[in-house]
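pls design
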């Protein structure tokens, strides 16, 4: 399985450190069957970095992308949806990332930019685990009828799993984006923007194992892990566990 290492950050100064994550993953992953591919980026040149991501990342087989902050997902998802029209996207994130689009994407507006540029339509997106959403983002969610699950009124895990799988079966392929701040910082402290009241590790992995049974998942990105804020590599190891769970289903 290919793992694209994309050490790109465009987080308005809040995500410095996330660029170190891809190398940390490669250093700690013991499995030799993974094919690590370096994507050259320049964090002082967003346009160049986006072009490199779009041109280098391929989706012929099931793929994993390791960032970097969530701005990575703008270019990788753009490349994905340009080649896979009948596809959907499941985003796990404490934040909506739907702030008004800037000229170049950041980790706060990458998803809004994909929608505004008509790269992916709002009905093809589902947001899971929201718990810190700005007023402008709330309005955008309502106006565009984006399906969103907030932690404050989340259904039980079994029902949530059913709903995500029901949504995902409508598409030929699915792109899953995982901002690791979806997990409560008590269990994953090494993230750029920690938010309390998230999933426990046990809850999140129970949900992922269910969703990973889907055969149409084409790509999983894992982003926003910040080694500079981590404790004993617990968050890095959580990200690696996500990779292991996804590759386990691929090997069956």
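designed seq:
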């Amino acid at each position: 399985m290919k793992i694209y290492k994309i050490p790109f950050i465009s987080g308005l100064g809040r995500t410095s450190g996330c660029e170190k994550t891809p190398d940390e993953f490669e250093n700690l992953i013991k499995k030799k069957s993974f094919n690590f591919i370096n994507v050259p980026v320049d964090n002082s040149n967003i346009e160049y970095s986006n072009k490199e991501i779009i041109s280098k990342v391929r989706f012929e087989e099931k793929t994993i992308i390791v960032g970097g902050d969530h701005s990575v997902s703008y270019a990788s998802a753009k490349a994905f949806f340009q080649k896979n029209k009948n596809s959907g996207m499941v985003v796990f994130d404490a934040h909506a990332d739907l702030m008004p689009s800037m000229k170049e994407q950041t980790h706060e507006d990458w998803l809004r930019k994909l929608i505004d540029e008509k790269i992916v339509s709002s009905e093809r997106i589902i947001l899971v685990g929201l718990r810190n959403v700005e007023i402008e983002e709330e309005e955008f969610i309502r106006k565009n009828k984006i399906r969103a699950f907030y932690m404050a009124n989340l259904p039980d895990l079994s029902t949530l799993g059913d709903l995500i799988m029901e949504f995902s079966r409508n598409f030929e392929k699915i792109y899953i984006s995982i901002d690791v701040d979806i997990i409560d910082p008590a269990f994953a402290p090494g993230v750029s923007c920690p938010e309390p009241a998230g999933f426990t590790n046990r809850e999140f992995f129970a949900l992922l194992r269910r969703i990973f049974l889907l055969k149409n998942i084409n790509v999983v990105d894992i982003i926003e892990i910040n080694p500079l804020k981590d404790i004993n590599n617990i968050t890095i190891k959580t990200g690696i566990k996500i990779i292991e769970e996804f590759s386990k289903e691929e090997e069956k």
